[in-house]
Amino acid sequence: MTQRLRRIEPLTLLIGVSMTVGYGTLYYPFAIIGPEIAKAQGWSNSFVFGVFSVALLSSAVTASLVGRAMDRFGARPVMVVGSCLAATTLYNLSQVQSMTGFVVAMLLIECAARMVQYETGFAALTAIHGRYARRPIAHVTLVAGFASTVFWPLIHWLLGYIDWRGVCLVLAAINLLVALPIHALVPARPRPGPDPAMRAPSIRDPGLLQPGRQRAAAFLLMAVAFAGSSFLMSAVHTSFFLILDEMGRPAALAALAGAMIGPMQVAARVIEMLTGERVASSIVGLISSTALLLGIGCLVAALRLDGDWIVIVFAISFGIGQGLNFIARAILPARLFGTDGYGALTGNLATIRLFAMAGAPVCTALVIAHTGIGATFALLVLMALIAVWASWALCRLEKRASAAGLSIA
Questions:
Q1: How far apart are the C-alpha atoms of 383 and 391, rounded to whole Å?
Q2: Which of 130, 176, 240, 358 has its CA 20 to 30 A from that of 300?
């Protein structure tokens, strides 16, 4: 790898900032402003968050279309349109008065989110750097890992001075003033540079796998691994306080453990960034899935073990798994399939993953309500085991392909 790719390039850092805005304005705010919307409009929390889940589910269809648009038109136009759409839809949300208007606004917000969050950012970096995108991707996830750390306090502070409608207007302005100029700087198409490592042959990487059954099997395994992990993360994020309450653990402990997950995922990304290419892409995915499984295992053990320490260990393990999961989702498709058609491939994978992600909160809540915490943990452990199995199978597949000399590296 060239020295140029060992440091954080200005554009990579800026894309990280734009991804922070993408998540901080279109995903994380609803944990805070959702109850504010429900209270101000006289709606139930279940309606507001139910609409959010439906909108997330609808974005599974959008993800595939966005991926194809990235391959056809390049990164810049998609991301620029996404920033404009994000600002417009947040403005529309600030003006809604009816339930129908709220539903439409949320559906449009999730459409915009697919154009300015990780999948598009990763596709842009892969188009720019080709097989050398792994380190820039790690840099971006490192920066964007602080999205909730930045925007949750900001939104909470803003609500002390303005209502939720005003907050939406501020978030719309951030998309226009911060994210849009950054996305306008992203190259529309990768261009050969003076560095041989950055010329077209290295950008157009065919990947490890030959067309045929190997690629079909790899796609299926990636879909299963990513969907299983996303189910776990979505279930824990939305039901963690409820799960610990069912276990008889205090809310303060849940808040402490939840606060530790973010820093641990950033720490895991720092370690991955420092190790770089020395760890195979599939191994990163396997470590991620295994860490998520160990985290769920700690919660199961907490049913029998006293003390807060076991819940803290859960947060450490789960945070590591979550941090590496985003990187694995970006680098493994490029490693196995190459960079041609990367946008469509990751868009299709995102479609499957988002279905699992959207269904997790509902499934988890129903299981807790009707069958109890034991069955809930059985469901989560099963999903974790499936993800680990698929990740392990991907490791074997990558190893066999490398041994067969199919890589052009």
A1: 12
A2: 358
Q: What secondary structure letter does DSSP report for 227? A: H
Where exactly are the structural domains of the chain? 3-202, 205-403
pLDDT at 201: 39
Query: How far apart, in Å, do the first and last CA atoms of the chain sit?
Result: 11
Burial (0-12, 13-18, 19+ Cβ within 10 Å), 263:
middle
What does the DSSP 8-state code read for residue 145?
T
- Helices 10-26, 147-158: axis angle to 10 degrees equals 50
CB 285 within 8 Å of CB 393: no
Classify domain 205-403 at the CATH topology level: Growth Hormone; Chain: A; (1.20.1250)
Q: Which helix (H) or strand (E) holds 235?
A: helix 213-246
DSSP 98: S
**Sign of the CA dihedral running 257, 262, 263, 266:** positive
Asked whether the domain spanning 205-403 has the same topology as the one spanning 3-202, the reply is yes
Sort 396 into a burial class: Cβ within 10 Å, 0-12 / 13-18 / 19+. exposed
Gyration radius from the chain CA atoms: 21
What is the 8-class DSSP label of residue 4? G
Give the SS3 label for residue 318: helix
For residue 51, give the amino acid letter: V
DSSP string, 169-224: HHHHHHIIIIIHHHHHHS-SS----SSGGGSHHHHS---SSPTTHHHHHHHHHHHH
**Residue 34 CB neighbours (<10 A):** 17
Residue 133: HSE in the Cβ half-sphere, 13 Å Cα cutoff = 30
Summarised one tens digit per residue, pLDDT across range 242-295 is 788 888 888 788 778 877 887 888 888 888 877 766 788 889 999 999 999 999
Q: How many residues are listed for the chain in this entry?
A: 409
Query: How confident is the model at residue 407, as a pLDDT?
Result: 42
CATH-assigned architecture of domain 3-202: Up-down Bundle (1.20)
Q: Which two three-digit tokens encode residue 309?
A: 């320490």
The angle subtended at Cα 109 by Cα 238 and Cα 103, nearest 5°, is 80
What is the overall mean pLDDT for the chain?
Answer: 85
